[in-house]
Amino acid sequence: MKRVMSKLYDSSPRELVQYAAHMATNLFKRSTKPHDEITGLLQRKFGVYTTSNLKGVTAEEFKRSIQSRIGTVDAEIEGYREGEIEQQRDLSIKFHWGHNHDFGDFRLEGRMGNRHINLLADFLSLFPLSLDDIQGKHVLDVGCWTGGTTLLLATIAKSVLAIEEAKKYAETVSFLSRSFGVDDRVSVKPLSIYECNAPEFFDQFDVVYFPGVIYHLSDPLLALRILFNSLKEGGFILVESAGINSQKPICQFDGSLVWHSGERERMNRGGWNWFSPSPSALFRMMREAGFDEVQTRWHYGTKRVYGLGRKVSQIGICKAGLSVPSIR
To answer: What's the pTM?
Structure first.
């Protein structure tokens, strides 16, 4: 009862209607496939990316190229000046492999393990979605890191545009897509999400895949609006984030001075988190950005926040205090 009363107190009438609608949707339209079944299917799809399926590069050349990148320290390629390197995120300066990948001839263990598989399975289990909703669609993959998610999406979607602000990772994903012969449907651009506020991105995508990024952004609402504008009408966004399990619409602020694991000397620290939202806060941010039919959930297994929203129509945004008031 205390949680219900808290929800009533902290929510506007419009939000209560939206919240009730998305709770009803979760109850009656959840995926009928068990999580393990979805995970197995996605693992089989990802299994095509082995050295036996390389195109235009030998297995030895491929292995050498991949392994030569791991652990390299390169701030210059990212455009950081000498005096500001100390303030930058470790993973932006030093190359860390992101996902587990059995290439057949060799295997790499990533910092995120099988997250690229498990995340998509989570979305398909938590929300009324199936692979059919991605099949044959144009997808924007935001924050692709070393490409586990990008390669997985390429087995399902018609096309994938992956963006990554760290140039070293964007170049690696381009190399992977060429090496596996999927560069006809995968393109990679070394861009910040804020650089996607441009006409060439407007109304281009059916799906925006946005996990593990929003809490690393200093301006999450602006980012959500940029992604809203990139969707075609009827398209949807999938959001996943570090967050806090609270009924209140609040965010935890850490900032770049707080890190939670790893060592400075090894340049393997995690952190650099800005705003980690509660499910209700993410709900409100997505609604403010223009999304409709918004659903957000706290995942007790991963202890993170998940969200789904649709672009029903191109609507305006409140521009009072907005950091880019000229935004579409």
So the answer is: 0.91
Q: Which pLDDT belongs to residue 22? A: 47
Output the CA torsion sign for 198, 199, 203, 206.
negative
Residue ranges making up the domain that contains 46 = 2-310
We report the CATH number of the domain holding residue 8 as 3.40.50.150
Q: What pLDDT shows up at residue 34?
A: 81
What is the DSSP-derived secondary structure letter of residue 234?
E
Cα distance between residue 24 and residue 99, in whole Å: 35
DSSP notation for 77-112 = GGT--GGGGGGS-HHHHB----S-EE-SS-EE--TT
Residue 201 lies in a domain: yes
DSSP character string of 32-72:
SS-HHHHHHHHHHHHTT-SGGG-SSS-HHHHHHHHHHHTT-
Residues lower than pLDDT 50 in the chain: 1-9, 22-32
